[in-house]
Design a protein that fits this description.
The chain is α+β, with helices and mostly antiparallel strands. The chain has three domains: 97 residues, 3-Layer(aba) Sandwich (Rossmann fold); 154 residues, ATP-grasp fold, B domain (D-amino Acid Aminotransferase, Chain A, domain 1), CATH 3.30.470.20; 64 residues, Dna Ligase, domain 1, CATH 3.30.1490. It is 36% helix and 20% strand. The strands form three sheets. Strands 8, 9, 10, 11, 12 and 13 form a six-stranded antiparallel beta sheet that branches. Strands 4-7-5-6 form a four-stranded antiparallel beta sheet, with helices on one face. Strands 2-1-3 form a three-stranded parallel beta sheet, with helices on both faces. Strand 12 and strand 13 form a beta hairpin. Helix 2 crosses helix 12. The radius of gyration is 20 Å and the shape is globular. Bound molecules: adenosine-5'-diphosphate (ADP) and magnesium ion.
Length: 343
């Protein structure tokens, strides 16, 4: 394995310390991913510089010009406080002919936009929940074609921002209230989808052209689901105390037939390709009792924290965290953006 110069790119508030000694778990949580990736890259023998940016590109440009990293390990999830601007930073790296890990700008743009994702997948005849978009700043008009229960979320935010039990609505009055809540509090378009009652499944995909998939993972909502199939709210995803209290766990999806496993990983690969994703992604699906499967969301550049779903599902097939991180570096090195085709 070659020793590389690697810039670990993240948000300026998430630059990890050299050591976590003396810190509590809760103190480590915000920069846990950064810390895990940073220490793993160092242990693998790479030269690593961590670079935190907020809303200026100049430091990124200077670091790259001076230090000439082989690759930028991209952990940035927003720019200037805007989540979807991560794609522009990657576009910038391409324009200055800098290699980077994770997804390319086109894949980020398609997968971060939940409506565009549906529109592209419709062409491929891949099912996603029926939907209606309520643009920010426009008044509420009763949707005619959708059947309750419905699910209301932000069309552009991620990390379950604005998602709670109240996101599931059963009548027009609560639908209107929740759409207004998204407009007022998240300040984005509100996406209303048919509520899919079923098992929530995640499939990790790794690769640029040849794709590797990891076993289908499932979230068990424990006692947090009030009579329904459960939803991944912020607390369900990240609040450790809440997870313990309600017995929320994730792990290999139990009881799936080989045929179902195959069907699901093949679907995940088709979605990955249809959305032009590269690097790595976690494809979130829901499977109803009748076996029908729908895409909830394709997460390009998903959470890479040690012990989280993506890394755990890789580990379950013998891909250790170290080798996962190294493979992501290798994929960043071998990705062929347009500028490299003319080299
Ligand atoms: N149409 C839907 N039907 C049922 N549950 C949904 C639906 N859309 C989202 N959810 C629930 O909300 C969670 C978060 O939604 P998602 O679209 O993945 O947003 P985010 O980008 O914030 O993760 C999902 O993991 C799922 O539990
Ligand atoms: Mg999600």
């Amino acid at each position: 394995m070659k020793r590389r110069r690697i810039v670990l790119l993240t948000h300026e508030s998430l630059v990890p310390p050299e050591t976590t000694e003396g810190l509590t778990e809760a103190q480590i949580d915000p920069f846990r991913t950064e810390y895990n990736v940073y220490s793993t890259l160092c242990n693998l023998g790479h030269h690593v510089r961590v670079l935190g940016i907020g809303d200026r590109l100049s430091t990124l440009r200077e670091t790259i010009r001076e230090w000439k990293p082989h690759v930028v390990f991209n952990l940035l999830e927003e720019f200037s406080g805007i989540a979807s601007y991560d794609q522009h930073v990657v576009a910038y790296l391409e324009m200055i002919r800098q290699r980077y890990t994770g997804c390319n700008p086109r894949g980020l743009m398609l997968s971060r936009d939940k409506v565009l994702t549906k529109q592209v997948l419709a062409w491929h005849r891949i099912a996603t929940p029926a939907f209606h978009l309520f643009p920010f700043g426009k008044r509420f008009i009763e949707p005619k074609k959708l059947m309750f229960p419905l699910f209301v979320k932000s069309a552009t935010e991620d990390a379950s921002f604005g998602i709670a039990q109240a996101s599931i609505v059963d009548d027009m009055k609560s639908l209107r209230e929740r759409v207004e809540f998204i407009h007022d509090h998240v300040q984005s378009d509100a996406l209303v989808e048919e509520y899919i009652d079923g098992r929530e499944l995640y499939v990790g995909v790794l690769g640029n052209t040849r794709l590797t998939t990891f076993p289908v993972w499932e979230i068990d909502f424990g006692t947090s689901n009030k009579g329904r199939a459960g939803i991944a709210t912020r607390r369900v995803k990240w609040d450790r105390k809440y997870q313990v209290k309600h017995g929320i766990k994730t792990g290999p999806a139990p009881g799936l037939s080989d045929a179902d496993q195959q069907r699901l990983v093949r679907l995940a690969k088709r979605i990955y390709r249809a959305l032009h994703i590269s690097g790595y992604a976690r494809i979130d699906l829901r499977m109803r009792e009748d076996g029908s499967v729908m895409l909830l969301e394709a997460n390009a550049n998903p959470d890479l924290t040690f012990g989280e779903d993506f890394a755990e599902s890789a580990e379950s097939t013998g891909v250790s965290y170290d080798s996962l991180i190294q493979r992501i570096v290798n994929l960043g090195m071998s990705y062929l953006p347009e500028w490299r085709m003319y080299e």
